[in-house]
Write a structure and sequence with these properties.
It is built from 15 helices and no strands. It has 302 residues and is mostly helical. Helix 5 packs across helix 12. The radius of gyration is 27 Å and the shape is globular.
Length: 302
């Protein structure tokens, strides 16, 4: 017995066209002109402060405060940057950049490492007092940072860390935000079955953390590392207090002494701000690829 296939009403040789609904469900949406215009305006608005800093840093102090202000770069950029490089912080901007790099780098590495370990423990391990300890960690987020300035200052003085870079690193070796951030990420991204399989294969705790936890947490580590580095680099309140009078300042403390005198030289100040911003742009450019790549590789299709 033979069956006859139903004859299609389409002309012979015409391929089936996917429906608009199927194309939207399985393909990519094409951005319209309005989306391009909105994104372009948003990009210009985001880049304008950086462009204005470049313009102000390349002019003189009178041109910066003139009305209307200049909108095109001038010819004093190299002169202002040279002045900042040799005079910022007393010992020059190079020393300040090195100090900020050491402090921000040490704080970032320690915060990311300890946050991953603590976040993994709170997310996947079982131990007594787990909820209580997590609650205590989260409760510190409600305490303003200004309340801890006086106790920390007294503690650093008693430890002999006054005017020392160690006083900028020890208080922020790990943060409650970092622990909570990694705990939330690992709770969703790290399957319990993967840990059990590693245990069955004979992996100890260190191997599980190194070969399982850290690879899974890489996207969140990149995000947390970038946020921590930027926050540590831009920190001003605690460094200006504990490093007061030091000849070994960070970038923000060095910038505070620029352009002072009979009149404020805003062109020199903006030149220093421009020089202090460039390392942050470099860090964002380097970690941005790892963030996008890590999220793409770790994505799970439903």
């Amino acid at each position: 017995m033979t069956t006859t296939a139903p004859v299609s009403d389409r002309p012979h040789g015409t391929a089936a066209r996917p429906s608009a609904r199927a194309g939207q469900a399985g393909g990519h949406h094409r951005a319209g002109r309005l989306a391009h215009v909105v994104l372009g305006l948003a990009a210009l608005a985001s880049l304008f402060p950086l462009y204005w800093t470049l313009v102000a840093a390349s002019t003189d102090s009178h041109a910066v405060v003139s009305s209307p202000p200049p909108m095109l770069p001038g010819g004093n950029l190299f002169e202002n940057l040279t002045h900042v490089w040799h005079n910022a912080g007393g010992r020059g901007m190079g020393v300040a950049l090195l100090n900020s790099t050491l402090v921000a780098g040490a704080v970032t590495v320690s915060t990311v490492t300890f946050s991953v370990l603590a976040g993994f423990a709170f997310a996947k391990l079982r131990f007594r007092g787990k909820k209580v300890m997590l609650g205590l960690v989260l409760s510190t987020l409600a305490v303003p940072a200004q309340l801890s300035v006086v106790p920390l200052f007294i503690l650093t003085k008693n430890l002999g860390l006054g005017n020392h870079l160690g006083a900028l690193i020890l208080p922020v070796l790990v943060t409650a935000f970092g622990v909570f951030f990694m705990r939330q990420f690992l709770s969703q991204a790290l399957p319990t079955e993967l840990l059990e399989a590693a245990r069955v294969d004979g992996a100890n705790s260190l191997r599980v953390i190194w070969h399982v936890v850290f690879p899974v947490a890489r996207p969140a580590m990149a995000v947390l590392g970038m946020l921590t580095f930027v926050q540590s680099w831009n920190d001003f309140l605690w460094p200006i207090i504990v490093m007061n009078g030091s000849t070994n300042p960070t970038v923000q403390v060095a910038l505070a002494g620029l352009g002072t005198g009979w009149s404020t030289d805003w062109s020199v100040i903006t030149a220093g701000a421009l020089m202090g911003t460039l390392p942050l742009l470099l860090v964002f450019a380097l970690l941005g690829r790892h963030i996008v790549g890590g999220i793409t590789q770790g994505a799970v299709k439903g």
